[in-house]
Structure formats: structure tokens, C-alpha cells
Specification:
The protein has nine helices and 17 strands. The chain is about 25% helix and about 25% strand. It is of the alpha/beta class and about 350 residues long.
Length: about 350
């Protein structure tokens, strides 16, 4: 079997892997498409830091995760696929059915997130295992390439749901990477009347408009808060200093939703948030119902994810794609099509 694996910080093409074998409750699928996520790029560059931070958290389901950075690592969690074979005593969709799933594999040893693993194959491969109870059939007529973006769209929907945005409130989205775009799409689909997006990249601002932003702001021309008075602010940048700057500039009584993953220590002045009674909500991933709702929204044309797809590569092109995604003006989402 062919796959792209992470080895010593670089994606490497392999064609010598055995096909995964489904156990009870599992299904072998053929991967149709898999989006390259920014978290994969970050793990490739800062894997040790990611693992150290994850394992230091008490109460986290992933705190017990063990990954050997010296061995090949499988990744790829934004995928669509076709059913090939069910495991023993497993009821599932007929062979050939296009499906997607929350990236979790249920097995005899427990729950294995399909994110970073030395043993559980992800979407950067010809074939992978999925859990029969978690499979969702891709509705007839929906491009499976578009269905592969269900996962990041669910992340955006979860952030918007946590914010409890009312249609009449102004929402400001800081950062127009894939998660910022997903938040914009979810806000527009929820009927929010004023969605403003801020990003330094002209290409990303143009794309934000296509995804539903009513207007965009270039932070290079001044703080977005100079021209926008938001009730809800979504931070989707994930670099030190952003949260503190938002607390300092945001209006009294506003709400801050932090979706950007910052792996560095950060400093905030609580006084800003206290004096203005700003509510801060950190968000992560999504609920199963939000994943299903995102697939339905894409299938019914409520959210058009086509503009986000700016490139496609085969398994032998994943390494170059990781490099190209460093340029925000060139790409937003590259799909791997094995």
C-alpha cells in the first residue's frame, strides 16, 4: 500500500506498507481525498513540543497518547473514502458506498484518535480503517472532495455554536486561514447580519468574502477595532500577543472566542478583560452532531467549500504541498487524492 508518512520532520512517500486489516466494528476503506490541516504542518515542525504540551495536561483524552518521533508517523484527519470491507461480525454500508467519519478509531484497546500515530493509518494513504458506528454516508451527488472538508467545517461550526451569536450581532473574525474561513461560513449560514474578516493577506481577504464575510479589513492599515465594533470576536490566528491585544481593544461587554491554537507561552493583562467584563471562551474540535450538521450543510449547498480548495496532489506530492502551504497568498487548502 502507498502512503505519505512523517519521518524526521518531513513527509516521505512509501509504497511498501501492508493493507490495514479491519477488526470487529471496523471497516476498511479506500481514501478518496484528504485535506492537509494546519495542525499537521505544525506537528511536522514542532512535534516534540506538541506532544510535551499534550501529555502535560490532566484530564485530556489525548494526554496518554504516545508517539515515537523516531519512527514513521501516520497523519491525515480530514477525509472522504469508499467502503471496501467490513471486519468480523460488523454491519456497515455496502461496498463502494462513499463515506466520511469523525477521525476516531474504536478498537479492542480503546479509542485511538486518527491524528498522529505510529500504528493507526490516517488519510494520507490509499486505505485506512474507520469505525462502523461512526461512519456517515456522503449524500448522493456530493463531490467527495468537498465532503473531505466536513471536519474543518465542523470546527468552525463548533466555535460559532459556543459563541451563541445572535443574527443581529456583529462578528469579527481575526485570521482567515482554513479555521477562520470555516467560522466565517458558519456565521453566514447561521444568518449573522454583519461578519467582518481581518487578515494581512489580500488573497485570503478575497477568499473570506467568497465564504460569506460581508466586509474585510487589512490589519496593516490599522487595527480592525478602529473601524469595527464587534459584539463577538473570533481569534483564529494562534500567535502570542493576539489575545491580550483583543482584550485591550475590544468593546465593553464583548465576547472573545479563541479558536487559534497557540503553542507558545503567552501573556495577558487580566485588567483589560475585567474592566470591560469581556467573556473569554476557548474552543476545540466539535461534537458528533456538529460534524453531521456540517456534512449536511455542504451537501445541501448551504456552505460552498469549493473556493477553499486551492490545490490537489497525489501521495508523492504531500511533502512539496506541506512546503507550499507556508505561503498564505498561494494556498488555503490542498487536498491529497491518493
Amino acid at each position: 500500500m502507498r502512503a505519505a508518512v512523517l519521518r524526521d520532520g518531513r513527509m516521505v512517500y512509501r509504497d511498501d506498507l501492508p493493507d490495514p486489516s479491519p477488526g470487529p466494528g471496523q471497516v476498511l476503506v479506500e481514501v478518496t481525498a484528504c485535506g492537509i490541516c494546519g495542525s499537521d504542518l505544525h506537528f511536522a515542525s514542532h512535534g516534540a513540543k506538541v506532544l510535551a504540551a499534550t501529555q502535560s495536561m490532566s484530564g485530556s483524552p489525548s494526554a496518554q497518547a504516545s508517539v515515537d518521533l523516531g519512527a514513521d508517523i501516520f497523519m491525515g484527519h480530514e477525509f472522504s473514502a469508499k467502503v471496501l470491507q467490513a471486519g468480523p461480525a460488523t454491519d456497515t454500508f455496502p461496498g463502494g458506498t462513499p463515506v466520511t467519519s469523525i477521525p476516531v478509531l474504536l478498537g479492542a484497546t480503546g479509542v485511538e484518535p486518527i491524528v498522529y500515530s505510529n500504528t493507526t493509518v490516517g488519510g494520507y494513504a490509499e486505505k485506512m480503517l474507520l469505525s462502523a458506528p461512526l461512519l456517515l454516508a456522503i449524500p448522493n451527488g456530493l463531490d467527495p472532495r468537498h465532503a473531505a472538508l466536513t471536519e474543518p467545517m465542523a470546527v468552525g461550526l463548533h466555535a460559532v455554536n459556543k459563541a451563541a451569536v445572535a443574527p443581529g450581532e456583529t462578528a469579527l473574525v481575526l485570521g482567515c486561514g482554513p479555521i477562520g474561513m470555516a467560522i466565517i461560513a458558519a456565521l453566514r449560514n447561521a444568518g449573522v447580519h454583519e461578519v467582518v474578516a481581518a487578515d494581512y493577506s489580500a488573497a485570503r481577504r478575497k477568499l473570506a468574502t467568497a465564504m460569506g464575510a460581508h466586509r474585510t479589513v487589512d490589519p496593516a492599515q490599522g487595527s480592525p477595532f478602529d473601524t469595527v465594533t464587534p459584539k463577538v470576536i473570533f481569534e483564529a490566528v494562534g500567535v502570542p500577543g493576539i489575545i491580550d491585544d483583543v482584550l485591550r481593544r475590544a468593546p465593553v461587554g464583548s465576547r472573545l472566542v479563541v479558536a487559534g491554537v497557540c503553542m507558545e507561552p503567552d501573556t495577558v493583562h487580566p485588567f483589560y478583560g475585567i474592566a470591560k467584563e469581556i467573556s473569554v471562551q476557548f474552543v476545540f474540535a466539535y461534537e458528533p452532531a456538529e460534524f453531521a450538521a456540517s456534512l449536511r450543510a455542504i451537501a445541501e449547498g448551504e456552505i460552498d467549500v469549493a473556493p477553499l480548495i486551492t490545490g490537489e496532489v497525489g501521495l508523492d506530492g504531500v511533502s512539496a504541498a506541506f512546503d507550499e502551504l507556508a505561503d498564505p497568498d498561494r494556498h488555503c487548502k490542498i487536498l491529497v487524492t491518493p
